[in-house]
Amino acid sequence: MQFLISMHINPAVLDALTDQEKAAIGNGHGAFIEALKTSGELITTQALVDPSQAAVVSVRNGQPVVTDGPYLEAKEYLGGFYLIDCENKERAIELAAQIPDAAIEGLGIEVRQVMFADGQLEA
């Protein structure tokens, strides 16, 4: 089963961390990635830029309309994700709990099963 583990970032929470705490998060992600590679459960992981660098695209009257910045004003934004392949949701939750961000008040980790990939609905 595939699961998306998404990390929701609150910049105010991150800004309040010490350099040592930020380094510990980075080191924790490195160790987590290596553990997932070793177990064979990692498909991919990506970190995303700050939403201020995003573009929102919609089509109106057949023409693309592009606006800068995040779609919604919110305290949190999607900061990155892990796409994993593991036995079940319980294992995905167990893995998500190992992400360093999960231990920091104000940061969120979400686990969602992948419904379909490559255009094919899962049976």
Could you explain how this protein is built, in words?
With 123 residues, this protein is an alpha+beta fold. The protein is 28% helix and 37% strand. The chain is built from three helices and eight strands; from the N terminus they run βααββββαβββ. Strands 2-5-1-6 form a four-stranded antiparallel beta sheet. It has a two-stranded antiparallel ribbon with strand order 3-4. β7 and β8 form a beta hairpin. The longest helix has 21 residues. The model has no long low-confidence stretch (mean pLDDT 90).
Unreliable stretches, pLDDT < 50, 5 or more residues?
none
Strand content is 35-45%
- Proportion in helices: 25-40%
Strand neighbour order, sheet with most strands: 2-5-1-6
Protein structure class: alpha+beta
Distance between the termini: 12 Å
Largest sheet: 4 strands, antiparallel
The overall pLDDT average reads 90
Overall radius of gyration = 17 Å
Order of helices and strands: EHHEEEEHEEE
Oligomer description: single chain
Continuous helix count: 3
User: Can you count the beta strands?
Assistant: 8
Overall form: flat
Quick recap:
The chain has helices at 11-15, 19-39, 89-96; strands at 2-9, 42-47, 55-60, 63-68, 77-85, 108-113, 116-117, 120-121. The protein has 123 residues and is of the alpha+beta class.
